[in-house]
Design goal:
34% of the residues lie in helices and 26% in strands. The chain is an alpha+beta fold.
Amino acid sequence: MLDDLRNERLKKRAALEQAGFDPYPATVKRTARIAEIIKDWKKYALKKTKLTVVGRVFGMRGQGGISFLDLKDESAGIQIVLQKDSTNDFTIVRDNTDIGDFIEATGAAFVTKKGEKSIQATDFRIISKSIRPIPSEWYGIEDQELRFRRRYLELAIKPEVREMFRKKTAFWASTRDYLIRSGFLEVETPVLESVTGGADARPFITHHNALDIDTYLRISPELHLKRLLVGGFERVFEIGRIFRNEGIDDEHLQDYTQMEMYWAYQDYVGLMDFVEKLVKYVIKTTFGETKLLCGWGSIDWGKKWPRVDYFELLSKEWGVDAAKLTVPQLYELAKKLHVTLEPNLGRGRALDNIYKKTVRPKLIQPMFLINPPVDVEPLAKRIPGKSDCVERFQILAMGSELGKGFSELNDPVDQRGRFEEQAKLRAAGDEEAQMNDIDFVEALEYGMPPAAGFAYSERLFAILMDKPVRECVFFPILRPKK
């Protein structure tokens, strides 16, 4: 069936070429976008100004000496009227135009008897002949994998999907705007690293031919951004791609965009105040309001976010003193709570995995979860007088972690020790444990000022849209078709 339609359109392409038309010209004319013409309709209609519009054909009807086309560009749609006695080469262009073709039409603006704004085309030409039919706007594409594999078709027929990606652009633009206006410098740091760190994640490995070494795609820009604090910058941020060789689910991608910022002479308490304002600004700018509806109900981002202690929350939920649980006790608790843990996990990872499966899904309204154990966050400062916990916060809402920040560890001796503990976990089989970055420890030995850092990724945008994160990516990776 598809082959028959394709062959029919190839014949129409040939007919256009035989008639002397180029079905793929390099240059086109355009007066304005359709939305701009509709906005100033009275001006164009009263003066009977000749207009030239371009776009894709989404509908065709009519017979005999008159045809009506539904034309859309990115901004809006309008009706094009072709008539045998007034449109150039009427028969050849009408008979060889299909839904999905891009066309250029020139003529006067008028309103039909049915009240529809239209352009009476005197000049008409195809500027890109479509060889395959596009899906119906009404029925769309139902198969999810096909939608992802042919996302350009979904974008072509669904303005609401295009609007979602415009919001995503606004999300990152407002993030950048707020940070720059707050005195932060936007920077770029390496994607390829000989030692990767800054997060607990399994990295992608590739080979650098020129240096003949294996390298990692970064799992976080953190350690390089902190080196910039050593170098004298006080407020820096980066919005860039992150790569983590992990599983696929509604909240995780293997390559995605993340914002990460570092602020010298600031701690996690002051940073929480700043981050709450940042996120509220981004949400208000992107969505026009701070109270959003989703599958969870109404989420009010505009209220003051409570700050909840990590161990107090876990102890309340589990009915035990979570701070005193040993690794064997955590594995027993996991069985009791029907949570499957991988073998050989350290205390921090075991705690975190059980929390993510049993507690986090219940956290719906925006909040900060603060002061987790050092086992969970090897890059944060210990809390004075409570050295087993660190000065870290997470943004929690809608059952998900949406951002993380902490007072940065700048003690090189403590950092070296924590890296060594992580290296032991890695040697025992934990592929997500952090690597021992000796070069970063050396940078700390030259001195890094007290600082706080924070990051969020496009997961936050997806959660705000109430969609799986893959829905909010233009082209998520898929297995190749055989």
